[in-house]
Amino acid sequence: MAEGIATAGAKVILVGRSQEKAESRIRKIESAGGQAEFRACDVGSRSSISQLAESLFASHGKVDVLVNGAGVNSATPFLEIEDEELDRIFDVNFKAVFRTCQVFGAKMVEADKPASIINVGSMSGVIPLSRVFTYSATKAAVHNLSKNLAREWAPSGIRVNTLVPGFFPAEQNRKILSEERVAQIMGHTPMKRFGNSDELVGATLLLASAAGSFMTGTETIVDGGYASMTI
Fold first, then answer.
1. What is the mean pLDDT of residues 140-155?
2. Burial classification of residue 100, based on how many CB atoms lie within 10 Å of its CB (0-12 exposed, 13-18 middle, 19 or more buried)
3. 226 catalytic, yes or no?
4. Which of 91, 101, 108, 100 is nearest to 48 (CA)?
5. Residue 128 pLDDT level (bands cut at 50, 70, 90)
6. Of the candidates 114, 107, 120, 119, which has an alpha carbon nearest to the alpha carbon of residue 52?
7. DSSP classification of residue 123
8. Average pLDDT in the 62-82 region?
9. Which family is it part of (predicted)?
10. Is 150 left (phi over 0), alpha (psi -120 to 50) or beta?
11. pLDDT confidence bin for 129, thresholds 50/70/90
């Protein structure tokens, strides 16, 4: 997503806790002709998010697009989920999005310029998915938050949408992709394959740019047909 936005002409700020992880992504973006830099931030900390926002608005004057993509997952059976795990997943998947939208949203409203917030949701936040109870609940909360903010900030020209990926194998979900589960997913996906990361770029650019200027409060699904299939 970051590479797609960068190669379309945006200056991208990669935000995270590890500069080492960001460096490889920055090199890839720059080799494709884009611009990117890294800023350290712990999205679990309101003060860290506030410092980031202050720094970015001071150095760039505005933030046109905010993408909230941090996420963690767990396959713990429902009756075995402990409060510590519940709190940890809610803090990363929902509270971090809430805090970031609140901090950056206040500055976007104050700047009085068109802006786009893209919150990364999940098909499990739309259609219940087995074995990821807490993850699904947090993503459903992100979807609801996005719609509420879309309604709240539309008069200010700030669009808020949820990008909803289907099955895109990533670091946090590979551990629950057994052979049996892969077969179940393929049986529910008309395209009979997983998504490739670059297939999120088109939807990202639509939601980020003037091409999607009348889109807000949407759940933009990129899932190979998963949501359209029952049995």
1. 98
2. buried
3. no
4. 100
5. confident
6. 107
7. G
8. 94
9. Belongs to the short-chain dehydrogenases/reductases (SDR) family.
10. alpha
11. confident
Give the position of tokens 């933009």.
220
Kindly tell me if the per-residue pLDDT of 171 is higher than 90.
no
The answer to whether the predicted template modeling score (pTM) of the entire model surpasses 0.70 is yes
Q: Tokens 């150095």 belong to which residue?
A: 59
Residue 175 has a pLDDT of 65
The residue-averaged pLDDT of 11-32 equals: 94
38-42: which pairs have CB atoms within 8 A and are 24 or more residues apart? 38/13, 38/14, 39/13, 39/14, 39/15, 40/15, 40/16, 41/15, 41/16, 41/17, 42/17
Q: Return the domain boundaries, the chain.
A: 65-228
C-alpha dihedral (172, 124, 164, 83), degrees to nearest 10: -60
Tokens 């309604």 map to which residue? Answer: 151
pLDDT at residue 172 in the model: 59
* b/e burial code for range 178-214 (CB count within 10 A of at least 16 → b): eeeeeeebeebbeeeebbeeeebbebbbbbbbeebee
E strands within 1-138?
11-16, 35-40, 65-68, 115-120
Q: CB within 8 A of 111, min separation 6: which ones?
A: 57, 62
Contacts of 225 (CB under 8 A, 6+ apart): 189, 190, 191
Q: Which of 104, 135, 153, 226 is the catalytic position?
A: 135
- Domain formed by 65-228, architecture: 3-Layer(aba) Sandwich (3.40)
Report helix, strand or coil for 212: helix
The fraction of the chain above a pLDDT of 90, given in percent, is: 86
